[in-house]
Amino acid sequence: MDQIKTILTSIIEPFTQPETYTKLATNIIMILIYIVVAWVAIKVINKIIAEFFKMHNKSKKGNKKRSKTLVSLIQNIVKYIIWFIIVTTILSKFGISVEGIIASAGVVGIAVGFGAQTVVKDVITGFFIIFENQFDVGDYVKINSAGATVAEGTVSSIGLRSTSIKTISGELTVLPNGSMGEVTNYSVIEGTSIVDLPIAVDEDIDKVETLLNEFLATLTSKYYLFVSAPTVLGVDDITRDQMTLRITAETIPGEGTTGARILRKELQRYMKMKNIKAPQPLMVQYDTGQQSNA
């Protein structure tokens, strides 16, 4: 009974001392100061990193998408480092041995490591994605896993463990880096727009090709996405009532589909303005009386 009383007294007694509350209040204030300092430091350092890459792009015409990817990565690493320093400092203020925690974490890490192989794989793959420049933030990609497409869209962010992809319909897909198999990047090389234009079979084909080529040459100044002037390749198909002209254009990376839509719209307007006839189906009338006599 005396032992229990002694234990309870030793627990309760510190809470009866004014020094305890003074020390606790001091520590709480210090913790709040550390948190504010960390928050301000992260904001300032992130701003410095962003400005550095912004100046780098202006002076050396660097890859803006690549810079955006590295800015996000470096800012995340800085954030983790600062918060690690703050947490260890706070623990030290409460008399908790940080060295002991780190040593224990090493032992526990070995035991947990076998169950965290997926996380390690994700991080290692993340390093390869970033430093091999497989794709950058803003690229349009299609990602396959085990032969099936798991995500297709614009890269929103790249982290060491996961990558976020915004689909064309607006959903945000977050993929562990280790789950990515085949990656198709549509934003690395120039795109190609291909449009098949049907015209009436009785049109003067040489005249139409000349008119179209003159008109298509004006689109490069109107639309930034055309790398060079679209051209008429020639007659791709002829049927009884129509000819099909194939038109192609080289676009900036990832804009082949958009370029094709623009070409269709502009060509329709131009054909109407120049009275270039669209194909009309031929109607064949049969004499039913002659068929029955036959």
Automatic annotation (TrEMBL):
It is found in: Cell membrane. Pfam families: MS_channel_1st, MS_channel_2nd. Residues 118-187 form the Mechanosensitive ion channel MscS domain. Keywords: Cell membrane, Membrane, Transmembrane, Transmembrane helix. SUPFAM superfamilies: Mechanosensitive channel protein MscS (YggB), transmembrane region, Sm-like ribonucleoproteins. It is a multi-pass membrane protein. Gene3D superfamilies: 1.10.287.1260, 2.30.30.60, 3.30.70.100. The chain crosses the membrane at residues 28-49, 70-94, 100-120. Residues 76-117 form the Mechanosensitive ion channel transmembrane helices 2/3 domain. InterPro entries: LSM_dom_sf (IPR010920), MS_channel_1st (IPR049142), MscS_beta-dom_sf (IPR023408), MscS_channel_2nd (IPR006685), MscS_channel_TM-2 (IPR011014), YbiO_bact (IPR045276). Belongs to the MscS (TC 1.A.23) family. This is Mechanosensitive ion channel protein MscS. The lineage of its organism: Bacteria, Bacillati, Bacillota, Bacilli, Bacillales.
